[in-house]
Amino acid sequence: MSVAENRSGLLKRGFNVMTFEGNLGDEREFDEKATENRIFLESLGLKNLFQSVTTMEGPAGASAHNYKEVSEMITAGIDCGAKNTKTVILKDGKIIGKGIVLTGFDQSEAVKASLEMALKDAGVSFKDLGHVGGTGSGAKSIQVADVNVNDIKAMSMAAHYFFPTAGTVADVGAEEGRAAKCDEKGNVMDFAINEKCAAGAGAFIEAMGRALETPLTEMGPLALSSDKAIAMNSQCTIFAESEVVGLIHAKTLKKDISKSIHDAMASRIVSMIRRIGVNPDIVMIGGVAYNPGFVAALQRELGVEKIFIPDSPEYGAAVGAAVVAATNGQ
Question: Which of 27, 56, 74, 318 sits between 20 and 30 A of 198, alpha carbons compared?
Answer without folding.
Answer: 318
